[in-house]
Amino acid sequence: MMTVSEQKALNEFGEPEGGGRLRNGVRTVLTYFFAKLAAAGGLYVLVLLCIAGLDLYEWSSTAKSLFIWYLVYGFGIAYAAAADVVVRFIRAEPKAKAFIRYALYGMGGYIPFFFFHKSIVSIPFVVIFGTLGCICALFFAVADGVMRKSLRLSILVGLTLLALHLVLAGSDLSLTKNWTEVQTDRGYEASFEYFRGERAVPIQLGEGETIRFKINWTNRNYGGYGMSVKDGRDKAVSMQEHSDGSLSFRAERSGEYSIMLWGDNLRGAVKIDWDISRE
């Protein structure tokens, strides 16, 4: 049998009072973390909507940008946590502290744009994009406040949105219709009724080999198109343009290189002729 004093030392979970404090402390930390994660996930959706609208291909393309990930999930969460620490040590009435918190969050919307290259940073640039960043930061603050009210909800929203963003980043949502292609050792040809997205043309090159190629597009509906080259690590490769309209680059290492074709609601065909040599 427990004495009255021992019974009073138990919390509502039937645990010793010290264990209850530990449990509440862990719950507070988890709620804080997942609320930030959920707010970042919501902000990421807002950024995707602003950049890509309801275009799923553009969502997938934007989600592949590491800069957006760093800005939202990296800088966003880190800055918000730092702002919370500052507010915690400020002695003021609750309403005043709430105002200061939102003000600090809003300031965070301007900060990233001061780190852009000097060639594009100007007062109008910072004012326009900083104001957009301020709105996004205030959205983050409101979402964070809502998510802190429920640990289960913040876990569900935070992990679900993070998983969806990772799936988007790893997905290829390119759309094609009646696509036919032929690739040989010296070239590539494709025709299509519809092309929206990217298509890779892989080419194996040895270290030191130079490939010179020329692309001819047939555009039957005035859609958009373009190209780039990536190496086996998915990094862009710089090319040299020649007077006849052809392009060339030298392989820095052996492996697979890809000529990346992209179309924007395009109907037509594309033909690539190339020649590989060792200089």
In words, what does this structure look like?
The chain contains seven helices and eight strands, in the order αααααααββββββββ. By secondary structure, it is α+β, with helices and mostly antiparallel strands. Strands 1, 2, 3, 4, 5, 6, 7 and 8 form an eight-stranded antiparallel beta sheet that branches. The termini are far apart.
Order of helices and strands: HHHHHHHEEEEEEEE
Low-confidence stretches: 6-16
* Rg, alpha carbons: 27 Å
**The biggest beta sheet, please?**
8 strands, antiparallel
Strand content: 25-35%
Q: Tell me the overall shape.
A: elongated
The overall pLDDT average reads 85
**Total individual domains:** 2
Q: Share of helix among residues? A: 40-55%
Total beta-strand segments = 8
Distance between the termini: 92 Å
Number of helices: 7
Secondary-structure-based class equals: alpha+beta
